[in-house]
Structures are given as structure tokens and as C-alpha cells.
Amino acid sequence: MSQLLTSDSMETRILVVTAVEAEREAVLRGLSAASTARFDVIAGGVGPAAVAARTATLLASSKGTYNLVVSAGIGGGFPGRAGIGELVLADVMVSADLGAETPDGFLSVDELGFGSSRISSDMEWNQRLLAQLSNAALTCTLAPILTVSSATGTAATAKLRERLVPGAAAEGMEGFGVAIAAAQHGLAATELRAISNAVGPRDRSAWRIGEALKALENAFGAFASITP
Ligand SMILES: O=C(O)c1cccc(C(=O)CC[C@H]2O[C@@H](n3cnc4c(=O)[nH]cnc43)[C@H](O)[C@@H]2O)c1
């Protein structure tokens, strides 16, 4: 992690939470040495529970430091919406497997009456991030991103999850966890995925992790010059 700010600086500071170290390194490669001072980048672990705990702990010990929390990493892309090497920014982060299976189908936590499975991204920040990408001639789809504890591995689950969240373009395993932690600290959040594989029948040999990490690096290269 780059140094944490402990002062009451008015400068914009952004916390970026990846799952694994390879993603963190890609983000750091994208950020120039100068701009790294405005970003802290941590690898919080795989899955919503690990990143929620890690992010919440960090935010509790750095109150007033951050303006935005970004969940970032590689992810699965829904065919026809986001292909390998493409970028997806979340307009909403949806916990897609939080609920109950029933003989008649899946019931979300919302339908069960236990809360909400959706957290909206901060749209002002999204517009700023999209403008940075556009200035760098990078394209990005703004769409719902699903968070799942088990990556989709069959056509049937892909169809179910697409039906659950029409328009979803990507799937990862951390966004909702990061967003929950940010929300509990009253902070804006969003999620960026660089697509490494198609959401559908599992075929690890078809994952293009290198391409996705390069796309992630390029995205943060574009974010590096964001104004304070
Ligand atoms: O093996 C490697 O070198 C390597 C390098 C970077 C990342 C990985 C991961 O396996 C990261 C796991 C991470 O990726 C997200 N992810 C990617 N595809 C999907 C998907 O189809 N469905 C859900 N999640 C996906 C996820 O956020 C994991 O945490 C390996």
C-alpha cells in the first residue's frame, strides 16, 4: 500500500481495493509515481466477505481520508455486453446470489425482506472517471456489475443471473462487499472490471488474464491525472 494520509488534507483521495496482488500491481503500474500520492491501493482478498472486512477496518482507522472507494479487478463479461479486454464501470453493484433458492426459483434478499442486494455507484464520480477514460481514448460500458460468491460456471446460471439483473455487463466477487463497507462509512463507491473471461460455462483455458490486467493498468493510467 502506498502511504496513508493521516492529516485533514482537502486533496481528493481515492482508496482502490482489488482482490489479489496481481490486480493491485496492475493498478499501481497504471498510476504514475506523482499521482500515487492521491491513491491508496490494497489487495483485500477474494470474495465479498474478505474485502468488506478489510475495507471496513481500513476506513475505520482512516476517517476523513477518502472521498471515493473503488473496487477494481478483472472479471467475467456477459456475452454481447462486454468482451475480453473491455472495461465495465458499475452504475449499480448487485449482490446476485444473496437470497434463497426455492423450488420456484431464486428469491433475492430484497424479496425476502432482509434488506437490499443493490448499492448504486456515485454517479458524479462515475462521470469523472468516464471522462478520464474518454480523454485517454478508452471505451467503457456503464452497466450493472454483479457480485457473486461462486463465479458463474454454467449456461443455466448465466441465464438466471442475466434475468435477475437485466443489462448486467460484468461479474466479479468483490464489488458489493467494498460498497457495503464504503456505505457504512458514508463514502461514495464504484466498481471497475476489466474483462478476462466470458460469463458462462467454465473454461479456465479461455481466461485472458494478461489482457485484462493490461486493460486495468490502462484504465488507472487514465485515472492518474484526475484533478484533486
Ligand atoms: O492466475 C493469475 O495470474 C491471476 C491473476 C489475477 C487475478 C486472478 C484471479 O483469479 C482473480 C480472481 C478474481 O477475478 C474476478 N473474476 C474473474 N472472472 C470472474 C468471473 O467470471 N466471475 C466472477 N469473478 C470473476 C473475481 O473478482 C475474483 O476475485 C488470477
Strands, helices and their partners?
Blueprint: E1 14-18, H1 21-30, E2 39-43, H2 48-60, E3 68-77, E4 87-95, E5 99-102, E6 105-108, H3 109-112, E7 118-120, H4 123-135, E8 140-147, H5 155-164, E9 170-172, H6 175-184, E10 188-198, H7 209-223
Parallel strand pairs: 1-2, 1-3, 3-10, 4-8, 8-9
Antiparallel strand pairs: 3-9, 4-7, 4-10, 5-6
Helix pairs in contact: 1-7, 2-6
Short account of what is shown:
Helix 1 packs across helix 7 and helix 2 packs parallel to helix 6. About 35% of the residues lie in helices and about 25% in strands.
Listing every helix as H and every strand as E from the N terminus to the C terminus, the arrangement reads EHEHEEEEHEHEHEHEH
Biggest sheet details: 5 strands, mixed, barrel
- Overall mean pLDDT stands at 94
CATH architecture label name:
3-Layer(aba) Sandwich
What's the CATH topology name?
Answer: Rossmann fold
Strand content: 25-35%
- The CATH superfamily is identified as Nucleoside phosphorylase domain
Proportion of residues in helical segments? 25-40%
Count up the helices: 7
Structural class: alpha/beta
